[in-house]
Amino acid sequence: MIRIEKATHGHLADIVAIINAGATSVRKGKEFGSFEEYRPAFEAMLAAPEMDIYVALDAAGEVIGTYQIHFLKGLAFRGRPRVELESVHVHVDQRGSGVGKLMMAHAEQLAVEAGACLVQLTSNKEREGSHHFYKRLGYDQSHLGYKKMLV
Question: How many CB atoms are located within 10 Å of the residue 100 CB?
Fold first, then answer.
């Protein structure tokens, strides 16, 4: 039995471990400090009204997945909000078990409830397995993305 719920302070270490285990490109090998270094950002995210962090928990209450959901305002689509997903990660031992699919369905339901016109996300170009996963869930690769690192 897998349940998905809002992250709490007690989930921080597990969330950091999961997202850092999946690090690619410029993050690879650079983010394995103490999880306490992430606490100020985590606290700010928990307090932000326009976003939430969720965790997927197994029957024992262990964190096996996580995602961040941001509710964005915009003028397109007659001013309807859109949802952006970020840091969608499943523990390496749980990949292929349906956890990711459950988290995505959960996020999409939250988007529908918020009246969002669409769900969008980016995925590192190195993560080909993730790209296939999103396509199987009905996501179109409709845009090119660009980033400029400032750190």
Answer: 21
Phi–psi pair at 118, nearest 5 degrees:
-165, 165
pTM given for the model: 0.90
Per-residue tokens: 43: 């606290």
Tokens of 18: 């999961």
- Could you tell me whether strands 51-57 and 82-90 are parallel, antiparallel, or unpaired per DSSP bridges? unpaired
Nearest-10 Cα torsion for 102, 104, 106, 109:
-140
Structure-block tokens of residue 101: 């699919």
The closest of 64, 74, 100 to 85, measured between CA atoms, is 100
Please give the span between the terminal C-alpha atoms of the chain, in angstroms, as a whole number: 40
- Three-state SS string across 52-107, please? EEEEEECCCCCEEEEEEEEEECCCHHHHCCEEEEEEEEECHHHCCCCHHHHHHHHH
Question: pLDDT tens track of the chain, all 151 residues?
Answer: 999 999 999 999 999 999 888 666 655 556 666 788 899 999 999 999 999 999 999 999 999 999 999 999 999 999 999 999 999 999 989 988 999 999 999 999 999 999 999 999 988 888 888 899 999 999 999 988 887 877 6
